[in-house]
Amino acid sequence: MSGPKATVEASGVQGSAEDEETTPPRQQAPACEQCGAVASKYRCPGCGCRTCSLACVNTHKTDTGCSGKRDRTAFVGMKEFDDKALLSDFRLLEEIGRADDVARRCRPPAAKPQLPAHLASLVYQGSWRSVKLLIMPPGMAKRKANTTRYDARNRTMFWRVEWRFPGTPVAGGSGCIECVDERVDEKAVVGEVLAAHLRHPAPNYVPLRPYAKAGLDALRVFMRKEKTPANAPAYFPIDTSKPLASQLASRTIIEYPVFIVALPHEAANYPPPAMLQPPPRPAGQQPGAPQPGTQGVGPSQAGPHMGVVQPPPPPPPRRPQPQQPSAAQLPLSGSGTLQSVHPQVQPTAALGPAAAAGRHGVRYGGRAG
User: Fold this and answer.
1) Running DSSP on this structure, what letter comes out for residue 267?
2) Contact assessment for residue 194 and residue 217, using Cβ atoms and an 8 Å cutoff
3) pLDDT > 90: percent of the chain
4) N or C: which end of the chain has fewer CB within 10 A?
């Protein structure tokens, strides 16, 4: 067969023979790194170890402890960073965000500390008395020693009160004498409760003689303000002539009140809070001198900035109301009828029975006139 068709077939056979000659021979796979007898078929993504079968793969993981997973956080150079590495990093970040969201949703809510019934009642009753009562965690010494209770039948708080006398140090130690009242009625006067520790039957009567000699009126009682720095403490003064409830109102107390009893010369060691301190005087002014701008102003004219409370102004005097004359005082006319003092007000007797009946809404067989 001759012609163009034979020429095309000959050229096709010649081209395939040239391709077979130019194609390089396929490289043989390296041997298995576990058994070494067979050519490897698999490559471990984690460490790159070559294996030939499942048995060799399991042996490799057991011997080396390899997980068989690619390290997705391994460093990749800029020359080797391609779209595949970018997609791998993006998927890793998505998985981390999803795991964080699942952990937040499945996390159980933090358990709120639940107080026992009697302690919750104390906190509630304290809030009704304007006292912020703080309860310490279980196991603390102050919580174990607290004997404050609320009497629901009498609706009365019985406080545990601790008294500290810093002027009488304990022998052989740096502390001071402490006296405790387990149950003090909130209606009891503070001075009466304190006086019971200064009399003869009290167990600490002998070491507390300096306080007894000073007298109850001369003693100063303080209560430390809670949540203040240790290097700048502040103390509230306590009025011993008032009930205990009035002295604890608007105060923060941890478990139970602790009162500090000081002698007259020790009162300066217990500064009041900033809210109770008087305003500072200008430099060079005498303690008894009046404030600037108030020369010649009396105490009744001093403003609130001087610390003098002005009394409220007296109410305006009432105007005397005009008294209406009674019927006995009204003048009589010539016909014997009563005359009205005010022209717009006419006495009933001068109007006649029909007009009077209509005025007062009384019906006589028909409508009132």
Assistant:
1) G
2) no
3) 28
4) N
